[in-house]
Amino acid sequence: MQRRQWDSKTKTKIILEGLRGLSVVDICTEYDISQAQxxxxxxxxxxxVNQTVETSQKNKKNKN
Length: 64
Known about the structure:
Elements: H1 8-19, H2 24-31, H3 35-63
Helix pairs in contact: 1-3
């Protein structure tokens, strides 16, 4: 059986659905992923979100 490849946009969409309060069980059922996979993606996303914010702030400073 071949493994699926998830692009970053789709992963982000799935993670944000959970952060918005949708049931993780329902999300995982809809996308046919395990809860462990969801939480792994979520943890990586949250651990790196500060880099995105810092990059955005640096870009705004460079434009001014």
